[in-house]
Amino acid sequence: MRPQTQADPQGPISLESLPMAQDRTLPYAMLRDAGPVVRLKNGGFVVTSREAADYVLRNPEIFSSERAFATLGSPVPLLPIASDPPGHTRYRRILQPFFTPRTAALLERSSHGQVNGLIDRIAGRDSCEVVAELARPFPAQVFLTLFGLPPEDLDRLLGWKDAIVGSADLSGSAAPPPEVMESAAQLFAYTTAHVAACRAGTGGGLLADVLAATRDDPLTDTEALGLCFLFIIAGIDSVTSALSLMFAKLAADPALQARIVADPSVIPQVVEEMLRIDPANCTLPRVATTDVELHGHLIPAGSSVGVALGAANRDPAELDDPDAFDVGRKYNHLTFGGGPHRCVGIHLARMEFTMVLREWHRRIPSYGLAPGFQPLVGWPAGVIGLSEVPLVFPARR
Length: 397
Ligand code: HEM
Fold this sequence. Notes:
Elements: H1 25-33, E1 37-39, E2 45-47, H2 50-58, E3 63-64, H3 65-69, H4 87-95, H5 101-123, E4 127-129, H6 130-135, H7 137-146, H8 154-166, H9 178-200, H10 205-213, H11 221-251, H12 254-262, H13 267-277, E5 283-288, E6 292-294, E7 297-299, E8 304-308, H14 309-312, H15 346-363, E9 368-369, E10 390-392
Parallel strand pairs: 2-8
Antiparallel strand pairs: 1-2, 3-5, 4-10, 5-8, 6-7, 9-10
Helix pairs in contact: 5-7, 5-15, 7-8, 7-11, 8-9, 9-10, 9-11
């Protein structure tokens, strides 16, 4: 790519110091103002424009995902994200048939029952904490159904997942604390038992189907475990975080609630615009495999390069009034990533969001944030979200 702007108009910045907690409009504008490629104080780089983001995500031979995710301290490589083509291409070929819109539609029926089971416990009351009571358990229930695992495993699965995700050190520099190692070991033992059951023909669900479909080119136990681990981390936590951000936004916007209640068919558009404007995965990590010049910066081989999805999703070169929340907007945002690693769970995630918002508004049409509550996301973090969103609403009998 040819240099287009003068590198570093403002000198290196640190992502940690961005004012992300309350609202992401200012920090994403600060990132974009710093240029399409920004040098960080820790020696890494971050790309902020849509064009540069696409370039990084679509050139895995220059910007490796395998090297970026190898440092996460998981007991097995998280597949397929911790792999680059050509190995990655094989994993996607195996997984893709199991993640079609049709598969998501097949899970709709069980998801409908699960969401309503959770809302049943809330609807007769006048307040709830929607993260603990809905956004956290629901995607885990979907995961258990998808993997053919018993619903009663929910609490221990969530406990292990929370310990591991909560301690994720994206720099890979610090050893995880003993209790996290213990959770990782227990989750490892749990998934190992599931892999063994699927191989023995006594386990069902997605993994059993994947193993059956790959008899001619079998996955090793390490590969099967790596898939399970990634699905637990990527498939549960991203949905919980995104739902926490969505509920906080909706609770502060009675007009948007009324619009959804009046016309639920608008929900998929509302979901897409929320995903665009406030992605939970705000930066995707990569590592440069070679010296590369991008927008006037020489990025040395081995540098970490983050793709700032939130900034790229609001690129003024791509969108009119990019900071405005506009339900009528049609834009192919980057919140599910791009290039070969684009989220494999995209149809499932969309089904989950649509289901939650449709059933919630059908049963609890009007609600607000609990008085005095300020939705502040934790920062710095690999995935941003709200640990709690207390809501109040008129009790309905
Ligand atoms: C809010 C919902 C979700 C969001 C925003 C999201 C976002 C993403 C993003 C940005 C990536 C690319 C990461 C990168 O390139 O570094 C990704 C990959 C992935 N996602 Fe999701 N995801 C969501 C839900 C799900 C669900 C429900 C599942 C599975 C059930 C899932 C499974 C995966 C997997 C397996 C990958 C790795 C794909 C690969 O490496 O080829 N995700 N996701």
